[in-house]
Amino acid sequence: MIKGFLITCIFFIFLLPIKGQELNYDESKIPPYTLPELLVSEDGEKITTQSQWIEKRRPEILSLFETQVYGKSPQHPKGLHFEVLSEDRYTLGNMATRKEIAIYFTEDEKHFMTILMYIPNKRNGPVPLFFGLNFKGNHTVNEDANITESVTRMKPRKEGDSEIHPGAFNRGAESSRWPVEILIANGYGLATVYRGDIDPDYDDGFQNGVHPLFYKEGQTKPESDEWGTLAAWAWGLSCAMDYFEIDEDVDATKVAVVGHSRHGKTSLWAGAIDQRFAMAISNDSGCGGAALSRRRIGETVNKINSLFPHWFCENFKKYNNKEDELPVDQHQLIALMAPRPVYIASAVEDLWADPKGEFLSGLYASPVYQLFGLTGMAVDEMPEVDSPVTNGYIGYHVRTGNHDIKLYDWQQFVKFADRHFK
Ligand code: GTR
Fold first, then answer.
1. 285 CA to centre of ligand 1 in angstroms
2. pTM
3. 44, 88, 169, 243: which has the fewest C-beta neighbours closer than 10 Å?
4. Of 73, 150, 238, 261, which one is the catalytic site residue?
5. Which of the residue ranges 19-33, 104-118, 119-133, 401-415 would you say has the lowest mean pLDDT?
6. CA dist 328 → 65, 75, 166, 229, 377 (Å)
7. CB distance 133 to ligand 1 below 6 Å
8. Whole-angstrom distance, CA of residue 180 vs CA of residue 190
Protein backbone atom coordinates (compact mmCIF):
# COMPACT_ATOMS: atom_id res chain seq x y z
CA MET A 1 0.00 0.00 0.00
CA ILE A 2 2.69 2.48 1.15
CA LYS A 3 4.99 1.13 -1.55
CA GLY A 4 2.31 1.80 -4.16
CA PHE A 5 1.83 5.32 -2.87
CA LEU A 6 5.56 6.03 -2.99
CA ILE A 7 5.85 4.72 -6.53
CA THR A 8 2.95 6.96 -7.58
CA CYS A 9 4.59 10.01 -5.96
CA ILE A 10 7.92 9.29 -7.64
CA PHE A 11 6.11 8.87 -10.93
CA PHE A 12 4.35 12.20 -10.69
CA ILE A 13 7.35 14.12 -9.34
CA PHE A 14 9.97 12.83 -11.76
CA LEU A 15 8.54 11.21 -14.84
CA LEU A 16 5.98 13.77 -15.89
CA PRO A 17 8.35 16.75 -16.06
CA ILE A 18 10.87 14.57 -17.91
CA LYS A 19 8.24 13.99 -20.58
CA GLY A 20 8.00 17.75 -20.97
CA GLN A 21 4.71 18.00 -19.16
CA GLU A 22 5.16 20.79 -16.65
CA LEU A 23 2.76 20.70 -13.76
CA ASN A 24 1.02 23.91 -12.79
CA TYR A 25 -0.67 24.29 -9.44
CA ASP A 26 -0.57 28.08 -9.37
CA GLU A 27 -3.84 29.95 -10.06
CA SER A 28 -1.91 33.04 -11.12
CA LYS A 29 -0.22 31.06 -13.92
CA ILE A 30 -3.46 29.95 -15.55
CA PRO A 31 -3.37 31.44 -19.04
CA PRO A 32 -6.31 33.68 -20.03
CA TYR A 33 -9.02 31.67 -21.75
CA THR A 34 -12.45 32.07 -23.31
CA LEU A 35 -14.95 29.27 -22.88
CA PRO A 36 -16.99 28.06 -25.84
CA GLU A 37 -20.48 29.56 -25.88
CA LEU A 38 -23.12 27.57 -24.08
CA LEU A 39 -26.16 29.39 -25.41
CA VAL A 40 -25.18 30.35 -28.94
CA SER A 41 -25.60 27.69 -31.62
CA GLU A 42 -23.06 26.86 -34.30
CA ASP A 43 -24.89 29.08 -36.80
CA GLY A 44 -24.83 32.00 -34.38
CA GLU A 45 -28.41 31.79 -33.13
CA LYS A 46 -28.99 32.87 -29.54
CA ILE A 47 -30.57 30.12 -27.46
CA THR A 48 -33.23 31.63 -25.23
CA THR A 49 -35.88 28.93 -24.90
CA GLN A 50 -36.09 25.36 -23.63
CA SER A 51 -37.10 24.06 -27.02
CA GLN A 52 -34.15 25.72 -28.76
CA TRP A 53 -31.88 24.09 -26.18
CA ILE A 54 -33.49 20.66 -26.48
CA GLU A 55 -33.87 20.59 -30.25
CA LYS A 56 -30.85 22.56 -31.41
CA ARG A 57 -28.07 23.39 -28.99
CA ARG A 58 -28.03 20.26 -26.84
CA PRO A 59 -27.65 17.91 -29.84
CA GLU A 60 -24.81 20.09 -31.20
CA ILE A 61 -22.89 19.95 -27.92
CA LEU A 62 -23.57 16.25 -27.40
CA SER A 63 -22.28 15.48 -30.86
CA LEU A 64 -19.06 17.48 -30.28
CA PHE A 65 -18.38 15.57 -27.07
CA GLU A 66 -19.10 12.34 -28.92
CA THR A 67 -16.81 12.96 -31.85
CA GLN A 68 -14.03 14.98 -30.16
CA VAL A 69 -13.83 13.81 -26.55
CA TYR A 70 -15.33 10.48 -25.45
CA GLY A 71 -16.17 8.89 -28.81
CA LYS A 72 -19.45 7.63 -30.23
CA SER A 73 -20.92 4.48 -28.74
CA PRO A 74 -23.00 1.91 -30.62
CA GLN A 75 -26.69 1.24 -30.02
CA HIS A 76 -27.44 -1.31 -27.34
CA PRO A 77 -26.84 -4.73 -28.90
CA LYS A 78 -29.71 -6.81 -30.24
CA GLY A 79 -28.59 -9.71 -28.08
CA LEU A 80 -28.85 -7.71 -24.83
CA HIS A 81 -30.67 -9.80 -22.24
CA PHE A 82 -30.66 -10.37 -18.51
CA GLU A 83 -30.67 -13.13 -15.97
CA VAL A 84 -31.11 -12.90 -12.21
CA LEU A 85 -28.29 -15.12 -10.98
CA SER A 86 -29.00 -14.98 -7.26
CA GLU A 87 -31.38 -13.41 -4.79
CA ASP A 88 -31.08 -13.45 -1.01
CA ARG A 89 -33.68 -11.69 1.11
CA TYR A 90 -31.73 -11.85 4.34
CA THR A 91 -28.53 -9.86 3.99
CA LEU A 92 -26.96 -6.98 5.91
CA GLY A 93 -28.63 -8.03 9.15
CA ASN A 94 -31.89 -8.75 7.32
CA MET A 95 -32.10 -5.12 6.27
CA ALA A 96 -31.60 -5.75 2.56
CA THR A 97 -32.12 -8.12 -0.32
CA ARG A 98 -29.06 -8.86 -2.39
CA LYS A 99 -29.45 -9.68 -6.06
CA GLU A 100 -26.89 -10.43 -8.72
CA ILE A 101 -27.92 -9.96 -12.32
CA ALA A 102 -26.05 -10.90 -15.46
CA ILE A 103 -26.37 -8.36 -18.26
CA TYR A 104 -25.48 -10.35 -21.36
CA PHE A 105 -24.20 -8.23 -24.25
CA THR A 106 -24.43 -11.10 -26.72
CA GLU A 107 -26.95 -13.77 -27.57
CA ASP A 108 -24.34 -16.47 -26.83
CA GLU A 109 -23.81 -15.09 -23.28
CA LYS A 110 -20.02 -15.05 -23.66
CA HIS A 111 -19.81 -11.34 -22.84
CA PHE A 112 -21.55 -10.05 -19.77
CA MET A 113 -21.30 -7.85 -16.75
CA THR A 114 -22.68 -8.67 -13.33
CA ILE A 115 -24.72 -6.15 -11.39
CA LEU A 116 -24.55 -6.47 -7.63
CA MET A 117 -27.62 -4.89 -6.08
CA TYR A 118 -28.92 -4.30 -2.57
CA ILE A 119 -32.54 -3.25 -2.04
CA PRO A 120 -33.96 -2.17 1.32
CA ASN A 121 -36.37 -4.75 2.75
CA LYS A 122 -38.33 -1.96 4.37
CA ARG A 123 -40.02 -0.45 1.33
CA ASN A 124 -43.49 0.40 0.17
CA GLY A 125 -42.79 0.00 -3.52
CA PRO A 126 -39.97 0.36 -6.02
CA VAL A 127 -36.96 2.22 -4.59
CA PRO A 128 -34.66 4.92 -5.95
CA LEU A 129 -31.18 3.67 -6.71
CA PHE A 130 -27.59 4.84 -6.57
CA PHE A 131 -25.71 3.10 -9.35
CA GLY A 132 -22.06 3.17 -10.35
CA LEU A 133 -18.89 1.35 -11.28
CA ASN A 134 -16.51 -0.13 -8.75
CA PHE A 135 -12.74 -0.31 -9.19
CA LYS A 136 -11.75 -3.70 -7.81
CA GLY A 137 -14.65 -6.14 -8.14
CA ASN A 138 -18.15 -6.52 -6.73
CA HIS A 139 -16.86 -8.56 -3.79
CA THR A 140 -14.76 -5.60 -2.59
CA VAL A 141 -17.81 -3.39 -2.04
CA ASN A 142 -18.95 -5.10 1.17
CA GLU A 143 -17.75 -7.78 3.61
CA ASP A 144 -20.86 -9.85 2.71
CA ALA A 145 -19.28 -13.28 2.15
CA ASN A 146 -21.86 -14.34 -0.42
CA ILE A 147 -21.11 -11.76 -3.07
CA THR A 148 -19.83 -13.57 -6.14
CA GLU A 149 -16.20 -12.69 -6.64
CA SER A 150 -15.58 -10.67 -9.81
CA VAL A 151 -12.99 -11.95 -12.23
CA THR A 152 -10.42 -9.21 -11.75
CA ARG A 153 -8.87 -8.12 -15.03
CA MET A 154 -5.77 -5.95 -15.07
CA LYS A 155 -2.75 -5.25 -17.21
CA PRO A 156 -0.57 -8.37 -17.43
CA ARG A 157 2.57 -7.84 -15.36
CA LYS A 158 4.91 -9.18 -18.01
CA GLU A 159 4.64 -10.55 -21.50
CA GLY A 160 2.82 -13.85 -21.59
CA ASP A 161 1.04 -13.24 -18.27
CA SER A 162 -2.73 -13.40 -18.07
CA GLU A 163 -4.86 -10.29 -17.52
CA ILE A 164 -6.89 -12.29 -15.01
CA HIS A 165 -5.74 -11.92 -11.42
CA PRO A 166 -7.73 -14.27 -9.20
CA GLY A 167 -8.03 -13.15 -5.61
CA ALA A 168 -6.29 -9.86 -6.34
CA PHE A 169 -8.44 -7.93 -3.87
CA ASN A 170 -9.96 -8.98 -0.56
CA ARG A 171 -13.66 -9.04 0.19
CA GLY A 172 -14.74 -5.68 1.50
CA ALA A 173 -11.45 -4.03 0.45
CA GLU A 174 -13.36 -1.00 -0.90
CA SER A 175 -16.16 -0.98 1.66
CA SER A 176 -15.19 2.46 2.98
CA ARG A 177 -16.21 3.79 -0.44
CA TRP A 178 -19.62 2.08 -0.47
CA PRO A 179 -21.69 2.77 2.67
CA VAL A 180 -24.36 0.27 1.65
CA GLU A 181 -25.95 0.03 5.10
CA ILE A 182 -26.45 3.78 5.26
CA LEU A 183 -28.04 3.95 1.83
CA ILE A 184 -30.37 1.09 2.78
CA ALA A 185 -31.31 2.78 6.05
CA ASN A 186 -32.23 5.90 4.06
CA GLY A 187 -34.50 3.99 1.70
CA TYR A 188 -32.13 3.76 -1.28
CA GLY A 189 -30.95 0.76 -3.19
CA LEU A 190 -27.39 0.42 -4.40
CA ALA A 191 -26.27 -1.22 -7.61
CA THR A 192 -22.73 -1.57 -8.86
CA VAL A 193 -20.72 -3.20 -11.62
CA TYR A 194 -17.00 -3.98 -11.83
CA ARG A 195 -15.54 -1.77 -14.59
CA GLY A 196 -13.37 -4.62 -15.86
CA ASP A 197 -16.50 -6.58 -16.82
CA ILE A 198 -17.15 -3.93 -19.48
CA ASP A 199 -13.62 -2.99 -20.45
CA PRO A 200 -10.46 -3.68 -18.44
CA ASP A 201 -8.70 -0.44 -17.60
CA TYR A 202 -5.48 -0.62 -19.56
CA ASP A 203 -4.33 0.17 -23.06
CA ASP A 204 -4.40 -3.06 -25.05
CA GLY A 205 -5.44 -1.54 -28.38
CA PHE A 206 -9.10 -2.29 -27.63
CA GLN A 207 -8.85 -6.04 -28.08
CA ASN A 208 -10.43 -7.06 -24.78
CA GLY A 209 -13.68 -5.62 -23.37
CA VAL A 210 -16.77 -4.78 -25.39
CA HIS A 211 -15.21 -2.85 -28.29
CA PRO A 212 -14.46 -5.82 -30.59
CA LEU A 213 -18.09 -6.97 -30.34
CA PHE A 214 -18.95 -4.04 -32.59
CA TYR A 215 -16.08 -3.96 -35.08
CA LYS A 216 -17.15 -3.92 -38.71
CA GLU A 217 -15.51 -6.43 -40.96
CA GLY A 218 -11.77 -5.80 -41.02
CA GLN A 219 -11.90 -3.23 -38.21
CA THR A 220 -9.32 -3.79 -35.47
CA LYS A 221 -9.73 -0.70 -33.32
CA PRO A 222 -12.28 2.12 -32.88
CA GLU A 223 -12.26 4.91 -35.49
CA SER A 224 -10.93 8.30 -34.33
CA ASP A 225 -14.41 9.43 -33.34
CA GLU A 226 -15.51 6.15 -31.78
CA TRP A 227 -15.63 5.15 -28.15
CA GLY A 228 -12.71 4.85 -25.81
CA THR A 229 -12.86 3.09 -22.47
CA LEU A 230 -14.75 5.80 -20.55
CA ALA A 231 -17.48 5.80 -23.20
CA ALA A 232 -17.62 2.01 -23.11
CA TRP A 233 -18.12 2.10 -19.35
CA ALA A 234 -20.89 4.71 -19.71
CA TRP A 235 -22.49 2.59 -22.43
CA GLY A 236 -22.43 -0.43 -20.09
CA LEU A 237 -24.17 1.62 -17.40
CA SER A 238 -26.76 2.66 -19.96
CA CYS A 239 -27.35 -1.02 -20.88
CA ALA A 240 -28.03 -1.67 -17.19
CA MET A 241 -30.80 0.95 -17.31
CA ASP A 242 -32.67 -1.38 -19.70
CA TYR A 243 -32.64 -3.93 -16.90
CA PHE A 244 -33.65 -1.50 -14.14
CA GLU A 245 -36.70 -0.59 -16.20
CA ILE A 246 -38.02 -4.13 -15.86
CA ASP A 247 -36.97 -4.81 -12.25
CA GLU A 248 -40.06 -4.29 -10.13
CA ASP A 249 -38.03 -3.43 -7.04
CA VAL A 250 -36.40 -0.44 -8.74
CA ASP A 251 -37.92 2.94 -9.50
CA ALA A 252 -36.19 3.42 -12.85
CA THR A 253 -37.28 7.06 -12.94
CA LYS A 254 -35.04 7.67 -9.91
CA VAL A 255 -31.66 6.21 -10.75
CA ALA A 256 -28.67 8.37 -9.79
CA VAL A 257 -25.51 7.43 -11.66
CA VAL A 258 -22.54 8.01 -9.36
CA GLY A 259 -18.79 7.64 -9.66
CA HIS A 260 -15.47 8.55 -8.13
CA SER A 261 -12.58 9.92 -10.18
CA ARG A 262 -12.40 8.12 -13.57
CA HIS A 263 -15.81 6.73 -12.71
CA GLY A 264 -16.99 10.28 -12.00
CA LYS A 265 -16.01 11.23 -15.55
CA THR A 266 -17.96 8.15 -16.62
CA SER A 267 -21.09 8.99 -14.63
CA LEU A 268 -21.26 12.46 -16.20
CA TRP A 269 -20.91 11.00 -19.66
CA ALA A 270 -23.50 8.31 -18.88
CA GLY A 271 -25.93 11.02 -17.77
CA ALA A 272 -25.28 12.87 -21.02
CA ILE A 273 -25.85 9.95 -23.38
CA ASP A 274 -28.76 8.41 -21.49
CA GLN A 275 -31.38 10.82 -20.22
CA ARG A 276 -33.13 8.05 -18.34
CA PHE A 277 -30.56 8.65 -15.58
CA ALA A 278 -32.46 11.01 -13.31
CA MET A 279 -29.34 12.38 -11.62
CA ALA A 280 -25.57 12.27 -12.12
CA ILE A 281 -23.01 12.52 -9.34
CA SER A 282 -19.36 13.14 -10.01
CA ASN A 283 -16.88 12.78 -7.16
CA ASP A 284 -13.36 14.19 -7.67
CA SER A 285 -13.74 13.62 -11.41
CA GLY A 286 -11.20 16.25 -12.50
CA CYS A 287 -9.83 16.48 -16.03
CA GLY A 288 -12.24 15.04 -18.60
CA GLY A 289 -14.89 15.08 -15.86
CA ALA A 290 -16.19 18.17 -14.13
CA ALA A 291 -13.01 20.30 -14.31
CA LEU A 292 -12.66 22.93 -17.03
CA SER A 293 -9.94 21.82 -19.46
CA ARG A 294 -8.94 25.36 -20.36
CA ARG A 295 -7.69 26.10 -16.85
CA ARG A 296 -4.71 23.79 -17.44
CA ILE A 297 -4.05 23.39 -13.72
CA GLY A 298 -3.29 20.00 -12.20
CA GLU A 299 -4.03 17.29 -14.76
CA THR A 300 -4.23 18.56 -18.35
CA VAL A 301 -5.55 17.11 -21.60
CA ASN A 302 -2.00 16.22 -22.66
CA LYS A 303 -1.27 14.53 -19.35
CA ILE A 304 -4.44 12.49 -19.24
CA ASN A 305 -4.05 11.37 -22.84
CA SER A 306 -0.46 10.31 -22.17
CA LEU A 307 -1.17 8.51 -18.92
CA PHE A 308 -4.40 6.90 -20.12
CA PRO A 309 -4.28 6.71 -23.93
CA HIS A 310 -7.34 4.42 -23.98
CA TRP A 311 -9.81 6.56 -22.01
CA PHE A 312 -10.99 9.03 -24.66
CA CYS A 313 -11.44 8.81 -28.41
CA GLU A 314 -8.41 9.26 -30.64
CA ASN A 315 -9.60 12.72 -31.76
CA PHE A 316 -9.22 14.06 -28.21
CA LYS A 317 -5.44 13.79 -28.58
CA LYS A 318 -5.57 16.59 -31.19
CA TYR A 319 -6.10 18.94 -28.27
CA ASN A 320 -3.00 17.96 -26.30
CA ASN A 321 -1.49 21.32 -25.25
CA LYS A 322 -4.13 22.98 -27.47
CA GLU A 323 -7.03 23.34 -25.07
CA ASP A 324 -8.14 26.59 -26.71
CA GLU A 325 -8.92 24.66 -29.88
CA LEU A 326 -11.33 22.32 -28.12
CA PRO A 327 -14.80 23.04 -29.50
CA VAL A 328 -16.29 22.29 -26.05
CA ASP A 329 -15.37 22.61 -22.41
CA GLN A 330 -16.61 20.69 -19.43
CA HIS A 331 -19.26 23.19 -18.25
CA GLN A 332 -21.12 22.08 -21.36
CA LEU A 333 -20.94 18.47 -20.21
CA ILE A 334 -22.62 19.48 -16.94
CA ALA A 335 -25.21 21.43 -18.94
CA LEU A 336 -26.14 18.26 -20.86
CA MET A 337 -27.71 17.03 -17.60
CA ALA A 338 -30.29 19.87 -17.57
CA PRO A 339 -32.95 19.99 -16.33
CA ARG A 340 -32.02 16.92 -14.29
CA PRO A 341 -30.14 17.46 -11.03
CA VAL A 342 -26.37 16.96 -11.00
CA TYR A 343 -23.95 16.94 -8.07
CA ILE A 344 -20.27 17.80 -8.25
CA ALA A 345 -18.02 16.91 -5.31
CA SER A 346 -14.40 17.97 -4.82
CA ALA A 347 -11.74 17.41 -2.15
CA VAL A 348 -9.63 20.36 -1.08
CA GLU A 349 -6.29 18.51 -1.26
CA ASP A 350 -7.10 16.98 -4.63
CA LEU A 351 -5.34 19.65 -6.66
CA TRP A 352 -4.66 17.20 -9.49
CA ALA A 353 -8.44 17.25 -10.14
CA ASP A 354 -8.71 21.07 -9.83
CA PRO A 355 -11.53 21.62 -7.29
CA LYS A 356 -12.04 25.20 -8.43
CA GLY A 357 -12.36 24.15 -12.06
CA GLU A 358 -14.93 21.56 -10.96
CA PHE A 359 -16.94 24.25 -9.19
CA LEU A 360 -16.71 26.65 -12.14
CA SER A 361 -18.08 24.07 -14.56
CA GLY A 362 -21.20 23.85 -12.44
CA LEU A 363 -21.46 27.60 -12.17
CA TYR A 364 -21.06 28.14 -15.91
CA ALA A 365 -23.58 25.39 -16.73
CA SER A 366 -26.25 27.18 -14.71
CA PRO A 367 -27.71 29.40 -17.50
CA VAL A 368 -29.18 26.28 -19.12
CA TYR A 369 -31.10 25.48 -15.94
CA GLN A 370 -32.44 29.01 -15.99
CA LEU A 371 -34.03 28.27 -19.36
CA PHE A 372 -36.06 25.66 -17.48
CA GLY A 373 -36.98 28.14 -14.75
CA LEU A 374 -34.58 26.39 -12.35
CA THR A 375 -31.59 27.50 -10.31
CA GLY A 376 -28.43 25.65 -11.36
CA MET A 377 -25.64 26.46 -8.91
CA ALA A 378 -27.17 28.47 -6.06
CA VAL A 379 -24.04 30.57 -5.38
CA ASP A 380 -21.63 32.59 -7.53
CA GLU A 381 -18.49 32.08 -5.46
CA MET A 382 -16.82 28.82 -4.54
CA PRO A 383 -18.08 27.85 -1.06
CA GLU A 384 -15.90 27.28 1.99
CA VAL A 385 -14.59 23.79 2.66
CA ASP A 386 -17.26 21.45 4.08
CA SER A 387 -20.12 23.88 3.26
CA PRO A 388 -22.21 22.10 0.64
CA VAL A 389 -24.36 24.13 -1.74
CA THR A 390 -27.50 22.13 -2.36
CA ASN A 391 -30.33 24.58 -2.97
CA GLY A 392 -30.17 24.44 -6.73
CA TYR A 393 -30.23 21.70 -9.33
CA ILE A 394 -26.44 21.71 -9.45
CA GLY A 395 -25.16 20.64 -6.03
CA TYR A 396 -21.56 21.19 -5.01
CA HIS A 397 -19.19 20.66 -2.12
CA VAL A 398 -15.49 20.73 -1.49
CA ARG A 399 -14.63 18.55 1.46
CA THR A 400 -11.63 18.42 3.77
CA GLY A 401 -9.07 15.83 2.73
CA ASN A 402 -7.72 13.96 -0.23
CA HIS A 403 -8.76 12.28 -3.45
CA ASP A 404 -11.25 9.63 -2.36
CA ILE A 405 -14.95 9.04 -1.93
CA LYS A 406 -15.88 9.09 1.73
CA LEU A 407 -18.86 8.84 3.99
CA TYR A 408 -19.09 12.64 4.05
CA ASP A 409 -19.51 12.70 0.26
CA TRP A 410 -22.24 10.05 0.35
CA GLN A 411 -24.08 11.86 3.13
CA GLN A 412 -24.35 14.91 0.89
CA PHE A 413 -25.44 12.80 -2.09
CA VAL A 414 -28.21 11.25 0.01
CA LYS A 415 -29.42 14.68 1.17
CA PHE A 416 -29.39 15.95 -2.39
CA ALA A 417 -31.25 12.87 -3.65
CA ASP A 418 -33.78 13.27 -0.82
CA ARG A 419 -34.51 16.80 -2.04
CA HIS A 420 -35.10 15.70 -5.60
CA PHE A 421 -36.44 12.15 -5.30
CA LYS A 422 -38.65 12.25 -2.22
C1 GTR B 1 -5.58 9.52 -11.93
C2 GTR B 1 -6.01 10.26 -13.17
C3 GTR B 1 -7.24 11.04 -12.82
C4 GTR B 1 -8.27 10.21 -12.10
C5 GTR B 1 -7.68 9.17 -11.16
C6 GTR B 1 -8.60 8.03 -10.74
O7 GTR B 1 -4.37 8.91 -12.02
O8 GTR B 1 -4.95 11.08 -13.58
O9 GTR B 1 -7.76 11.64 -13.99
O10 GTR B 1 -9.13 9.62 -12.98
O11 GTR B 1 -6.58 8.57 -11.68
O12 GTR B 1 -9.46 7.62 -11.47
O13 GTR B 1 -8.38 7.53 -9.63
1. 8
2. 0.95
3. 44
4. 261
5. 19-33
6. 7, 24, 41, 20, 20
7. no
8. 7
